[in-house]
Amino acid sequence: MDKLKIGSREFSSRLLLGTGKYRSFEEMRDSLEASGAEIITVALRRLDLSNTGQPGLLDFIDPQRYTILPNTAGCKTVQEAVQTAQLAAAMGLPRWVKLEVIPDPQYLLPDPIATLEATKILVEDGFEVLPYINADPILARYLQDVGAVTVMPLGSPIGSGQGLLNLPQIQIIIEQAQVPVVVDAGIGAPSDAALAMELGASACLINTAVAKAQNAVQMAHAMKLGVEAGRAAFQAGRIPRQVYATASSPLTGLPALGS
């Protein structure tokens, strides 16, 4: 069985799905089901901790079916990210975290120095850390060295749907990786997800492309198929690209014309 292994955990699905930006909790729930995803990312800052009695995000996520991956979305500093991860663990959520440290509100690019520092702290504190990074092969190697259980390079700016603009760097990260590589951010269509998987990425994390689609549930299913097709193509081994055409029907052994 082709399992996705992240730290101490194993999964059958290689599609991770986010829970933000949906038009309703019901649409999110139905999209999760259609995607076949097993790992669901949840921003701790979006959780209602006031106990108002109103249904909240977690009420629409079946804990028996999905593994929740807390993320530190909205954190701008090392201290904020570390404290958010620790709060998630104190709430009883799994002791692993998608680490995001993003100080720039305009371009939403992750801070490489703060990400590396926060990863070190959280690994020492016993967390399995999945850091979100720019497509930087050197940083990816440093993060692996300090104990990150994945690296998660962005394909293009978060929420942009521009696809894999950082393709050459992502390919280098995959070639050098000793841990799973999860392409995160910028995927806009199933073809983008398929391409990432064809390169050898271990998984894709998708949110906006599903949540903001005209039909989120149908797009979630399409992303599932894109990830599965890309993984199958990677395992099958694509033909090499060539400069010149090659006939699909061999000419040897054919009878000579006029004979």
From TrEMBL:
<feature type="binding site">
    <location>
        <begin position="185"/>
        <end position="186"/>
    </location>
    <ligand>
        <name>1-deoxy-D-xylulose 5-phosphate</name>
    </ligand>
</feature>
<dbReference type="InterPro" id="IPR033983">
    <property type="entry name" value="Thiazole_synthase_ThiG"/>
</dbReference>
<feature type="binding site">
    <location>
        <position position="159"/>
    </location>
    <ligand>
        <name>1-deoxy-D-xylulose 5-phosphate</name>
    </ligand>
</feature>
<dbReference type="InterPro" id="IPR013785">
    <property type="entry name" value="Aldolase_TIM"/>
</dbReference>
<dbReference type="GO" id="GO:1990107">
    <property type="term" value="F:thiazole synthase activity"/>
</dbReference>
<dbReference type="Pfam" id="PF05690">
    <property type="entry name" value="ThiG"/>
</dbReference>
<feature type="binding site">
    <location>
        <begin position="207"/>
        <end position="208"/>
    </location>
    <ligand>
        <name>1-deoxy-D-xylulose 5-phosphate</name>
    </ligand>
</feature>
<dbReference type="GO" id="GO:0009229">
    <property type="term" value="P:thiamine diphosphate biosynthetic process"/>
</dbReference>
<comment type="function">
    <text>Catalyzes the rearrangement of 1-deoxy-D-xylulose 5-phosphate (DXP) to produce the thiazole phosphate moiety of thiamine. Sulfur is provided by the thiocarboxylate moiety of the carrier protein ThiS. In vitro, sulfur can be provided by H(2)S.</text>
</comment>
<comment type="similarity">
    <text>Belongs to the ThiG family.</text>
</comment>
<feature type="active site" description="Schiff-base intermediate with DXP">
    <location>
        <position position="98"/>
    </location>
</feature>
<dbReference type="InterPro" id="IPR008867">
    <property type="entry name" value="ThiG"/>
</dbReference>
<keyword id="KW-0704">Schiff base</keyword>
<comment type="pathway">
    <text>Cofactor biosynthesis; thiamine diphosphate biosynthesis.</text>
</comment>
<dbReference type="GO" id="GO:0005737">
    <property type="term" value="C:cytoplasm"/>
</dbReference>
<protein>
    <recommendedName>
        <fullName>Thiazole synthase</fullName>
        <ecNumber>2.8.1.10</ecNumber>
    </recommendedName>
</protein>
<keyword id="KW-0808">Transferase</keyword>
<keyword id="KW-0963">Cytoplasm</keyword>
<comment type="subunit">
    <text>Homotetramer. Forms heterodimers with either ThiH or ThiS.</text>
</comment>
<keyword id="KW-0784">Thiamine biosynthesis</keyword>
<feature type="domain" description="Thiazole synthase ThiG">
    <location>
        <begin position="5"/>
        <end position="250"/>
    </location>
</feature>
